[in-house]
Amino acid sequence: MSVLFILLVIVTQCCNVIYGLSNNPRHETIIQAPHVGYVNNKSKSLEVYVCGTSHFKCNSATEVTNLISEVKPDGVVLELDPERVVRLTKQYAGFDQNGQLTNDSELIYGVDFASAIETSQKLDIPLFLGDEYAQETKSRLIRDALNVKKYSPRPFLNSVTSRMKSKEDNADCVRIDILRMFAADPNKVRPLLIAGFPPFLFAVLAFFFDSGTTQEGSGSLIVLEIVVSIVLSFLAVSFLFNTVIVERDQILAASTLQASEVLRSLKDNKSIRKKWSFTVKKEKHEEDTEDTTLDNKESLPLFTLKTPLITNGIRNLNLFEPRWLKMIDEVIRGSSLLDERVFGCVRCTNKFYSAISVNGEEGRYADIIFEKQGTYARIKELKEGLRPSGDRRINVKIEGGDAFIVDENNLSVSKDGYMVATQVVVKPTVDSDNDDTLSTISEEGREISIRIVVVVGLLHANGIVDLIHNK
Question: Where exactly does CATH 2.30.130.40 map onto the chain?
């Protein structure tokens, strides 16, 4: 009887796992935290945990680490762009902006993101960058400055009433409780107070500056100035909210959904994930006499592209990173004929680079997801040049050749930091409609479930929850 009882308990626990986190008490505890939002789509194929953080010193770093460790998601999306990641992680690794080791890794801003990166790397979780470049945000601010609709206070006022709602009784959509979060950690209010204080300070200074005047009607003038100051400040806040918050909510939500598709492709075995680290070295102008020639008959260097290279397609590559310069040099050095100057191009669906220390030198942690199918690229033309800084750059004109399939088991990384494939197989022409080797449907007939943690500023959190929930 005891054996049967034990078997019954095991079967019950397995069923609980199969039915998912929605029936898991640990899951219920996680989403009850005031800084956590949660969305589960209608098909139960995507679960998103949104962690609302403050980027300054508070409990957010610990909360991010705990959430990622407890959920163990398939991927983590950060409210960062590639440039901010490198700047942040260089300082976190103890390097200054020139790559010199300073051993000063204390962060005033961005500890929450640094903790998310460190925890994800320790747990071997893919990282995704969900934000646009700062230059793009700046350009949009300038472009929309004369757009009257962007000054509408309606989205901002709606956010005060809707985005600060407490958790609702909905198992598939839970919003963060901003008021309770502020009560639990008052330090998170500090950035908002700093951002909202200048308009009121300006109004107070205007009042005291004009309070000494004795001219008739000066009291009414002071009141008018204060009212105008507050109104203009409110319109400015509405403009910034509409462009910096609302529009970036849409970008971050779209990036999260895109990350889910990349992770699904990875689970479907359509893509490959490769991780490695390498040092960042300046390219030397003098000839490198070290013999590291690649044998093109057995080894194929791989270059990652955002969009795939098609057969017979022409592409111009402007290369300046030391590893890509070294790759091209090795391809040229290993070729005796023009037609042998070949390397492979693969479409990269996710690219994450962070700064790390490699043997005391500035290096990079690379976490790349790319499609298995690639295209041979033949070098048609190569032009040497220099960047404004004086560093070397080259312009490479390539032509797409046959398609091939990369074998994950025959994939390595060169000492210079680029991937090399061996024993690639030329892809035969098949009817895509009949190609059922890859599928997004599990054996039970339901779509494979993806679980993601999104780490964003608290002003973005509920907006992202709402956008994903409404998809």
Answer: 271-430
Bridge partners (DSSP) of residue 370 are 272, 348
Distances (CA, A) of 223 to 158, 214, 415: 28, 15, 69
Q: The tokens 């409110």 sit on which residue?
A: 234
Distance, in Å, from the CA atom of 253 to the CA atom of 263, rounded to the nearest integer, reads: 15
Distance CA 79, CA 165 (A): 23
Average pLDDT over residues 157-183: 71
Q: In degrees to the nearest 10, what's the CA dihedral of 115, 120, 126, 127?
A: 0
Percent composition of the chain: helix, strand, coil (DSSP 3-state, to 5) = 45, 25, 30
d(CA 326, CA 303): 12
Mean pLDDT for all residues in the chain? 80
Angle 160-161-165 (CA atoms, 0-180°, nearest 5)? 105
The answer to whether 405 and 317 have CB atoms below 8 angstroms apart is: no
pLDDT in tens, 370-400: 999 999 999 999 999 998 888 999 999 999 9
The pTM is what?
0.80
d(CA 86, CA 80): 10
Q: Is residue 46 a contact partner of residue 54, using CB atoms and an 8 Å limit?
A: no
Report the pLDDT averaged over residues 98-107.
76
Q: Of 334 and 310, which is predicted with more confidence?
A: 310
Quickly state the pLDDT bin for 150 (edges 50, 70, 90).
Answer: confident
Two tokens, residue 383: 């032009």
**CA 352/CA 145 separation, integer angstroms:** 33
Return the amino acid letter for 358.
Answer: V
Q: How many Cα atoms are found within 13 Å in the side-chain-facing hemisphere of 130?
A: 32
Angle ∠(346,351,354) on CA atoms, nearest 5: 140
Name residues whose C-beta falls within 8 Å of residue 401's C-beta, 6 or more positions apart in sequence: 311, 342, 375, 376, 377, 378
Per residue in 405-426, pLDDT tens?
999 999 999 988 899 998 778 8
Measured CA to CA, the distance from residue 44 to residue 34 in angstroms comes to 23
* 311 close to 401: Cβ distance less than 8 angstroms: yes
The sign of the torsion formed by the CA atoms of 429, 434, 437, 438 equals: positive
Q: Is 207 exposed, middle or buried (0-12, 13-18, 19+ CB in 10 A)?
A: middle
Q: Is 224 left (phi over 0), alpha (psi -120 to 50) or beta?
A: alpha
User: Using CB atoms within 10 A of its CB, is residue 135 exposed (0-12), middle (13-18) or buried (19+)?
Assistant: exposed
Superfamily grouping for domain 271-430: LON domain-like (2.30.130.40)
Q: Which residue type does 144 have?
A: D
